[in-house]
Fold this sequence. Notes:
Layout: H1 3-23, H2 35-63, H3 66-75, H4 98-116
Helix pairs in contact: 1-2, 2-3
Amino acid sequence: MPTNLFVSCMRTLVPLGVALLVSWSGRLGIPVDSEAAAAAVALGFAGAYYLAFRGLEWLAERLAWHPLRMAAGLLLGWARPPEYVRDLVVPLRLQVDKEHLDRETRAAWETYQRAIGGGRE
Length: 121
């Protein structure tokens, strides 16, 4: 699994794990009447959790405050945001030598003819 994919998965799964813990609110003494309500609360909490700590991480990057960035990143499941690297695009120009191409094509054709038995001498 590429590093960026692993990091982005961790940064999503940790807040969802926290939301799961909160969804067990009945065990914490907070009564919830239905599973749907508990799921909605859990998803809302996961979204708020992610936005809060991602916002802190963003703010810490702008302020160059590394301990806050590290703490917010760890509470998201990874110490830093994933880096999505773009593919490198390099222009390529080929100059084809006609004589060389003709020789190689002729040699390939002769090899093919010998392989199928058509070029017997």
